[in-house]
Design a protein that fits this description.
Layout: H1 20-31, E1 36-39, H2 46-54, H3 57-60, E2 64-69, H4 76-91, H5 96-105, E3 113-115, E4 122-124, H6 134-147, E5 152-157, H7 170-178, E6 184-190, H8 193-201, E7 212-215, H9 221-234, E8 238-239, H10 241-250, H11 255-265, E9 274-275, H12 277-300, H13 304-316, H14 325-330, H15 336-348, E10 352-357, E11 360-365, H16 368-377
Parallel strand pairs: 1-6, 1-7, 2-5, 5-6, 8-9
Antiparallel strand pairs: 3-4, 10-11
Helix pairs in contact: 4-6, 6-7, 9-10, 10-12, 11-12, 12-16, 13-15, 13-16
């Protein structure tokens, strides 16, 4: 019996919950020669939605599709390395002819491609430090995408990372390449909505007004309840509506945490048996216990001031005016200036995030499992 609650890889159509409107919106935009800016909070399902879009018949049959996540990159050379590797990996199943055309066009890294003498299969031998001219390689990759045998779609996840590159002209450089292309469409996605919106809505920025903005919000509660209850039922099991509703409310509709919970819970329930709120709670307890060592290591690397602020935000759930005297005093923090410094560090480490509300910025712990662990531990 397959687990219907996928948390990685490509999710088969019957097990992909909702997102019909967002899928159609993005597909229509791409096929109408437009680029897309896809934003959401972390763990809301952006990556899975992109992969789902790539599996749509109208896209899969007509386009080469590529996806990279640049969250861990620190400069243009790393991004270009990932682009080249992803194109290579995608083209390998297409045959030697497609690969040969890529090699011939991206000459600055062509030495990194070879044929295994034993298996006869193509190899990507390029090392990260062998990208000597990233600007030139980027231009060659874009030229390849523009002249590839099929139209292309290239998704770059955590796109806001390019604003942190040591090459301060990366935005302008990439925009210069993208705006010349008609054979390749782009999905720029990320979880730092504030930075991304500045990049695409500020008149002074290179990517100003260059992509259609799509915000990925929570799946509606009723739709998710039907999805979970239906998948249990189809496999000869049951789960109470209260149990699913409890999980949805606990994680505020964040897709990953709900999916992870039901992914772990599903095999624990025997055919003919029913899952309850208590069994959901027990499953979450197990996930948190499993992650406690990693959570401990993360917090051990923080200063006392940083850890104190992180715990205060966790206890609040949603914290506003964190540099105010009242918040500092109520949570036994050192001073508003110390909180300001700690806040910048925690944001940079992506241990916390925030959303803009009419009352100002509202901060919260980025990982919902870690948030619950912090509440219980401190």
């Amino acid at each position: 019996m397959n687990n219907p609650f996928y948390i990685s890889g490509i999710i088969p159509e019957p097990y992909f919950c909702d997102r019909e409107k967002e899928t159609q919106n993005i597909v229509d935009t791409l096929m109408n020669q437009g680029d897309v800016l896809l934003t959401s909070a972390r763990r809301m399902g952006k990556t899975q939605l992109i992969r789902h879009i790539f599996e749509q018949a109208s896209i899969k049959e007509k386009y080469y599709t590529f996806y990279i996540d640049i969250y861990a990159t620190s400069d243009l050379g790393e991004m270009v390395f990932l682009m080249g590797k992803e194109i290579f990996k995608t083209l390998v199943p297409k045959g030697r002819r497609a690969l040969k055309y890529f090699w011939e066009n991206v000459r600055s890294i062509s030495a990194g491609f070879s044929i295994d003498p034993i298996s006869g299969k193509p190899r990507f031998d390029l090392k990260l430090g062998e990208i000597y001219t990233p600007e030139l390689t980027l231009e060659e990759i874009c030229q390849y995408l523009e002249s590839a045998g099929k139209p292309c779609i290239f998704a770059i996840d955590e796109f806001q990372q390019i604003t942190r590159y040591r090459q301060t002209n990366t935005e302008a450089l990439l925009r210069s390449c993208v705006q010349k292309m008609s054979n390749c469409r782009f999905i720029f996605s990320g979880s730092d909505r504030h930075i991304l919106e500045q990049m695409f809505s500020s008149y002074s920025k290179p990517f100003y007004n260059s992509a259609k903005a799509v915000y990925l919000d929570r799946i509606e509660k009723e739709a998710y309840l039907r999805f979970v209850i239906g998948n249990f039922s189809e496999n000869g099991k049951s789960i109470s509506e209260d149990a699913v509703s409890y999980c949805y409310d606990l994680f505020e509709g964040y897709t990953y945490y709900m999916q992870k919970t039901f992914h772990e819970l599903f095999p624990q329930i025997s055919a003919g048996a029913a899952a309850t709120k208590e069994s959901v709670d027990g499953t979450i307890r197990g996930i948190i216990d499993e992650g406690s060592h990693a959570f401990s290591e993360l917090t051990a690397q923080l200063s006392i001031a940083q850890k104190g602020l992180l715990c205060a935000i966790a206890q609040a759930g949603k914290a506003r005016s964190v540099t105010s005297g009242s918040f500092v005093k109520a949570n036994a923090l050192t001073s508003p200036s110390s909180v300001q410094k700690s806040l910048a560090t925690l944001l940079d480490l992506q241990l916390i995030s925030y959303q803009l509300t009419p009352g100002g910025k509202e901060y919260f712990v980025a990982d919902k499992f870690m948030e619950r662990w912090l509440k219980e531990t401190y």
